Amino acid sequence: MAIIETQNVAAQSKKDFYQLKIYRLKDDTQVTRVDSFLKTAYLPALHRLGIKKVGVFKLIANDTTMLKSMRVFKPSDNDVNKTRSIYVFIPLKSLQQFHDITNKLDNDATLANDGKSYFEAAYNNVPYQRIETVLLEAFSDHPKFEMTALKSAVKDRIYELRSYEGPTERKYASKVKMFNAGGEIPLFKRLEFNAVFYTAVLAGSHMPNLMYMTSFENMDARNAHWKAFVNSPEWKKLVAMPEYSNTISGAEVLLCHAADYSDIN
Fold first, then answer.
1. CA 128, CA 93: separation in Å to the nearest integer?
2. Are 120 and 112 in contact (CB under 8 A)?
3. Which segment of 83-87, 107-111, 178-182 scores lowest on mean pLDDT?
4. What is the 3-state secondary structure (H, E, C) of 35-84?
5. How many CB atoms within 10 Å of residue 173?
6. 185 or 265, which is more confident?
7. Which residue in 2, 35, 216, 235 is a FRET match for 257, CA 20 to 30 A apart?
8. What residues contact residue 37 under an 8 Å CB cut-off, 6+ apart?
9. pLDDT > 90: what percent of the chain?
10. Which residue has the higher pLDDT, 83 or 219?
């Protein structure tokens, strides 16, 4: 038993973990305040802890018509305007690091000083509506996140964040298998989707759930890549297999640009 447990720990240590920190914002003033905090205080603090590649992403142009057309599940009626959300992607080497950085940031005097106006905001003039955290574990067939190989102008690049919710734990497990043993990840790689990560959601508001991010030179390239994907023989074979049917009960597709201060851009 001890040998098996040791092997499991060793296997997990070879995979990344990630924190996806989501700021929900009500207006452009809050966007500006959180941007300033992230750029001048929070990312530098993470860099001091050795986390050098932090991604910051924003939904494209607040295009609610486009976003609604892609959603399968809908936010609750009292939800904040998700088109103003800011997504912060933090790569971690272990779950222990997730715990450790929280404590270290809480005791970082430089962060406290650089982010003073953010941390000490008045209760009736807050910089955000709420913060959500999603804890992610890399898939076995894509154990480390990757920087993109994009060459277009940064402003044109598209980052696509997808979230697939499963109807049951077993159906969800089948969808995860489809990505790994089923060969969906190699298909994405063959078609040059420039994936940043593929992950299982360990803790979050939508579960069971998986999330992944791909990237493209521009919107035309994004559309062309997905057309090639759905028309590929590999995908047609996979989607026709009974074990992979009805594995998604809800999906969210978000198209993003990287913030100008993002390490991943």
1. 28
2. no
3. 83-87
4. HHHHHHHHHHHHHHCCCCCCEEEEEHHHCHHHHHHHCCCCCCCCCCCHHH
5. 14
6. 185
7. 235
8. 115, 118, 127
9. 84
10. 219
State the Cα–Cα distance between residues 58 and 259, nearest whole angstrom: 7
Measured CA to CA, the distance from residue 78 to residue 130 in angstroms comes to 13
pTM: 0.88
CA-based end-to-end distance of the chain: 44
For 68, residues 6+ apart whose C-beta sits below 8 A from its C-beta are: none
Q: DSSP secondary-structure letter at 124?
A: T
Q: Do strands 158-165 and 17-24 pair parallel, antiparallel, or not at all (unpaired)?
A: unpaired
Give the type of residue at 123: Y
Summarize the confidence of residues 87-111 as an average pLDDT. Answer: 96
99's tokens: 């715990």
Residue 186 and residue 125 in contact, taking contact as beta carbons nearer than 8 Å: no
What element of type H or E holds 18? strand 17-24
**DSSP 8-state class, residue 80:** -
